[in-house]
Amino acid sequence: MKTYQYQWPPKKYLLHAQVQHETDETDGPYRLNIIREHCDGTTTIEPMEIADKNLRFIITRKRPEENSISFSYSEQLILSVYELEDTAFYPIEPYYCG
Amino acid sequence: MSIKWSEHACKYNLQNEWNDTLKEAYLYDRLSTEHKVRCRLCPRNCVIQQGEVGFCKVRKNINGTLYAQTYEKAAHVAIEKIETEAIFHYEPGADILSLGTIGCNLNCSYCQNWSLSQAEYANPNIISQRTSEQIVNMALKNNIKILSWTYSEPAVWFEFVIDTARLARKHGLVSLFKSAYFLSEEATDMIIDAADLFAVSLKAMDNKYYQTHTQGWIAPVLNCTKKIHRSGKPLEIENLIVTGLTDKDSEYIKIIDFVKKELDESVPLHFSSFHPDYKYVHLPQADSSHLERARAMALERGLQYVYVGNVFENVGLHSYCSQCGTMLVERFGLNSRVLETLDRSGRCVKCGKNNNIKLKP
Q1: In Å, how far is B293's CA from the nearest CA of chain A?
Q2: Using the beta-carbon criterion (under 8 Å), do B333 and A16 form an inter-chain contact?
Q3: How much is the pTM?
Q4: What chain A residue is nearest to B179 in terms of C-alpha separation?
Q5: N or C: which end of chain B has fewer CB within 10 A?
Q6: pLDDT in tens, B316-359
Q7: Which residues form the domain of B53?
Q8: Which residues have C-beta within 8 Å of that of residue B324, sequence separation ≥ 6?
Q9: How far, in Å, CA of B324 to CA of A5, rounded?
Q10: Is the domain covering A2-97 a CATH 1.10.3470 domain?
Q11: Is 0.85 exceeded by the ipTM?
Q12: Which candidate in B10, B84, B97, B308 is best for mutational testing of the A interface (most A CBs within 10 A)?
């Protein structure tokens, strides 16, 4: 599994995450876990199954104590993370890709 | 990281690359002279010469026929929350499938999606081909009930929105149309018929402001908005507060009075903070104190549901009973939590007032 951790800056609340299969030939669905990490050391895990070859979705910070978010995902997936400056905003340059 | 606009930003010529899925426009006239056409989609009524495009840059005259070049061409597809669209009274917390294309019939100097809305700056590589069936299937597969036509101006892929919304309805989906509503009367009628809920981006209440900062004008926007309200379908209004331009009491009052007098005091109004982008990177982000002041003034003048937007921790994000003030929906960021004080029919449990909030099934 690949992993990527994003630390929420103080005034950031929104991300777009995009997952793409490396090839068009897919035996999906593939697994993606979103792990929310809180300042008291607790975590919550949100498992997702990605059936689409290319799926983009919003991730919102759920509470003030959430200080980072980690992605754990199948080797066959490429994850792009976009920071949103605003709602109804569609950035085209990823903050992270890997 | 974001792409910075400059006078020399990379320009593309899409007009010659987009001829594979043309769709004849629904609203235009053929003129008798030299294969010219007149587009009737928006109030500009662009008269377009053979081989040329209109103001929006994505509707092209080919041999005297007007074609929508954006048909089945998606530049943005994402699963988001309905709160993204400044819709707080329809299924709080619902997932939506947000869809956008490139092109716009306005040119707002602060547009946050300018690299898509202004077609000459849109990189063709971001475009993906999506049929109506594929979009409906994607929504169904991901258990999403709401299609949201948004980001840049959805009116410029009018034909695709209409066709997809009609198909979506057959599958039990609803369509949200978020627009600046700079539309012709007949386009408005068709959108009202095809879509189910409406988010109006009302830039200001001043015609000169529209002319200077959006290259449009205000009268058609207000007419469309009133028409949607008369249709009885769900409607929410968003006003973007731009630092130094619309962050004034006199501006807030004009918008508040429009909603109260021309629409209804129960229509939700959102005051949202602009962030510096496109040609207005020199202006600072609108401070939340302006949003809070505008909200307070609106409540004081009798509007029932007033919210702040593009801020994520604020009491102005929550929904309160307009009669007794009880909190009904709590929000943090774009997360909504419907409280036990709101019953399934949208009534306040404490006082019985119907607050017109439709909950998820």
Answers
A1: 20
A2: no
A3: 0.95
A4: A88
A5: C
A6: 999 999 999 999 999 999 999 999 999 999 999 999 999 999 99
A7: 23-68
A8: B348, B350, B351, B353
A9: 44
A10: no
A11: yes
A12: B84
